[in-house]
Amino acid sequence: MVRLTVVPERSRPPVEPTAERRMWAYYVIERSKGHTPAGADLDRISGTNNYGRRVLRRWKQHGKVA
Length: 66
Known about the structure:
Layout lengths: L18 H14 L6 H8 L4 H11 L5
């Protein structure tokens, strides 16, 4: 028999957004301003190194960005 424990939502620690989610939020904001961020821009705001280019390439391949 499996026992499940219910943890109230308020007692859970806040979850940090992933680097890719921070990149997407930044990308959307910058596009609304008329600027298209490069991979280096995405790396800068998320604190990653050369990950922004890969994410941007994947977004393009999947049609998420033009």
